[in-house]
Amino acid sequence: MAGPTGGADAPDLAGADKINMGFIALIVAVATIGGFMFGYDSGVVNGTQKGLEGAFSLDEAGLGVAVAALLLGCAVGAFAAGRLSDMIGRKGVMLWAAVLFIASALGAGFADASSHFIIARFIGGLGVGAASVLAPAYISEVTPAAIRGRLSSVQQIMIITGLTGAFLANYALAKSAGGSTEEFWGGIPAWRWMYWLQVIPAGIYLLALTLIPESPRYLVVKGRDAQAEGVLARLFGAEAAGRKVAEIRASLAHDHKPKLSDVLDPISKKVRPILWAGLILAVFQQLVGINIVFYYGAVLWQSVGFSENDALLINILSGSLSILACLGAMAVIDKIGRKPLLLVGSAGMAVTLGVMAWCFSQAQMVDGALSLPESIGPVALVAANAYVVFFNLSWGPVMWVMLGEMFPNQMRGSALAIAGFAQWIANFAISVSFPAMASGLGLTVTYGFYAVSAVISYFLVQAWVKETRGRELEEMTG
Questions:
Q1: pTM of the model as a whole
Q2: The domain 21-475: what is its CATH number?
Q3: Helix residue ranges, H only, 216-307
Q4: By three-state DSSP, how is residue 17 classified?
Q5: What's the DSSP call for residue 436?
Q6: Using an 8 Å Cβ cutoff, are 146 and 14 in contact?
Q7: Taking the mean position of all CA atoms in its chain, how far away is CA 135?
Q8: Local structure of residue 214 (DSSP, 8 states)
Q9: Bridging pattern class, strands 369-371 and 364-366
Q10: Tens digit of pLDDT for each residue in 389-427?
Q11: Euclidean distance between CA atoms 37 and 160, whole angstroms
Q12: Closest Cα to residue 67, out of 300, 326, 278?
């Protein structure tokens, strides 16, 4: 861990022998269940779209709104969570997120009108948005700088695990029932059960959150130094705890509590450069189109000739490769740094998205349906999965790691609110526009746009993003 003078190679603050890795592992495991719920809630809709279209008579526009309703909730949840966490704590907001997950799962499964479904998914989005920004921030605030990147990367692994879990559950339910729209237990269509299954991990999340402490940095902000020192003593040992409380206290502005205007330079009143860097990471993570694979993957592969069963299996393959790629990122992020991974990811995604765009340009209409030539289908499949690997080796985990650690203590909650809001608005814009873009402009132009975004992201990272590897949170400046 970097000491007071900073530096990636500085000795660990507490000393390796003092760090309570068992306690830290428990905290990370519990906090990242929110990431699992984030992934599950985002991925479950992938296998339910036929059910939604049939139950609510949705056209392309209506389906886009139903799919993207979660994302509007995410934007609101992310923005509100950043500020709320400064008022009621990181743990307090995560507890509310767990309750929202349960309510959304029940409501979406029981929905008898598209409006009810949209409301339920919006409620779930509030929880997803809150968990998406607070889990990495919370992990960053309770882990040693020397391994912070690895531990924060667990969030992305859990997101992908949640996505893959949703794909597996969707596949198993659809296969058992004979299709996602066929009746399953109780004579109820399988697609409704896909939502109800979310209650199980959401309930586990709610109960598990009672086992972990509040963030010590939040406690110091609230003047609860003794409580913060107690938490830090359990994490790093009694000697380091008192010193760490003093460092956190010194890093905070003493004249006011954290507020939204902290994201502005106090002299020029302009947005701080560090926030612009965060916004670049947040927005371009979505402009490269990754969630199209996860939200519309089953529909996409069916549209170019794969069966529903094969399309769901492809989703599982993509999810499994994503987990392996995240593990790779976790292994190297604290060794080579965040910025190099982002640059490699941007370059790799630009190439693989370009190949996908070319593949879709070869598609032909066969019996009224779009189909890839037999020789092109495997190329598209390999390119798509290589794209997923590049994303999850880089922008997938690294964005969340950096948003959780790059902002100074005083403005962390406010900056997370703004960056999280921007991330989910970009997610919404990309997701809701995909059906119209794919049908109106074609898959070639659509994926060409994502490829160009990946190219632009490379140069923006070069110009705006600064390395944070090994630096203490108290050293971050904006």
A1: 0.72
A2: 1.20.1250.20
A3: 216-221, 225-236, 238-251, 273-287, 290-303
A4: coil
A5: H
A6: no
A7: 10
A8: P
A9: antiparallel
A10: 999 899 988 888 888 788 887 777 788 888 888 888 898
A11: 10
A12: 300
